[in-house]
Amino acid sequence: MEKLDAIIVTHPHVDHSAFVPYLYKMGYRGPTYFTLPGRDIAALMALDYISVAQKEGRKAIFSSKDIKEMIKHSITLEYDEVSDITPDIRVTFYDAGHTLGSAMVHLNIGNGLHNLLYTADTNYEVSNLLNAAVTRFPRLETMILESTYGGKNENYPSRREAEEQLYEMIKKTLERGGKVLMPVLGTGRAQEIMVIIEKAVRNGMLEKIPVYIQGIVWDITAIHTAYPDFFNTNVRRLIFHKDQNPFLNEIFKRVGSRKEMMQVIEGGPCVILATSGMMVGGASVEYFKLLADNPKNSIIFSSYLGKGSLGRRINEGEKEVNLDGEIINVKMEVAGIRGFTGHSTRERLISFVRHLMPKPKKIILVHGDNSNCLDLASTLHKMFRIETNAPKNLESIRIK
After folding, report:
1. What is the tens place of the pLDDT at every residue in 130-156?
2. Cβ distance 154 to 372 under 8 Å?
3. Which residues, including other chains, have CB under 8 Å from residue 160's CB and lie 6 or more apart?
4. Distance between CA atoms of 196 and 12, rounded to whole angstroms?
5. Domains assigned to the chain
6. Contact 114/399 with Cβ under 8 angstroms?
7. What are 369-396's pLDDT values in tens digits?
8. DSSP H helical segments within 203-250, as ranges?
9. Exposed, middle or buried, 202 (CB in 10 Å: 0-12/13-18/19+)?
10. pTM check: above 0.70
11. What's 133's DSSP letter?
């Protein structure tokens, strides 16, 4: 731990932030850099991990004390704010467009000898919540670019098409007296879905129905309302000029206990937003157990579904699911809507590189299936005549 100068967290999704409290448990006492909402949500997600582990009878790898240590040593930066993290490295955060407060990390190394951009998870599109990722930087030699959806076969509908699909599914389910379960990511996806449904209700496209929000999603949404400056212009205008904060609409109702969950199950038609998005645990699995055998109900997936996850298996058509020895018959309608991603699609990744100012001399592709990394690396090299590399796990690359 003595050799570690600093930790930089780009955004609070657990695959990018969850291990940080463990490092403090192991003795690290240096700084961790966040944006303000990134710090708050990362701490909340870490506390939720401990809570879920306790409920499932597992031992968490860190405690709330370690999370407090992380917060105590955190340094928050605004976008475009330059900060020295070592005597010869300066860091600057730029808006990544992925989740609230998500950042791309620009490192100025050796008094400008080399400039590195790590995009982390990025979205080069104005979404229902956020602005598109930034493409202008003072200097840039090397870029580490995500390639989650960089493959040629990764095709997605537009956000508008995805919204129309969502409205149709909700309408159809409500008309037959059913409930809509939407497994969601606690930060980012859940809040965008909330804004989309609220907009449809406000404009008369959907009837005024209750939208039940499971515990952690509610808490993370509360953090979103505390940082309106991080939203795009449309959402900021609603909040500041029209006094119509979409997150405070009366259609949204919190579910904070098992008793309240059962009241939702026994009640009338509604929409339920619950984590986890891949159904690897959490309230979404509990709701699924109780709703699956009723053909009036629907389950709509809008998040990435990892191979082998329960969500992936259901979305691919499994009709019988074994959950801890209990056989669940899937009679509810199943749908997957892929247009709400917080990642850039292949076309937007290419467009992002096209609009970069200045262009990097080298692009390193990460954060995607092996085939997606290689495919995007090949395409970018051919299109822009830039050196590209898709490193294997544990492979080292000298950037200069």
Report:
1. 999 999 999 999 999 999 999 988 777
2. yes
3. none
4. 22
5. 7-152+342-389 (3.60.15.10), 159-336 (3.40.50.10890)
6. yes
7. 899 999 999 999 999 999 999 999 999 9
8. 215-226, 233-240
9. middle
10. yes
11. P
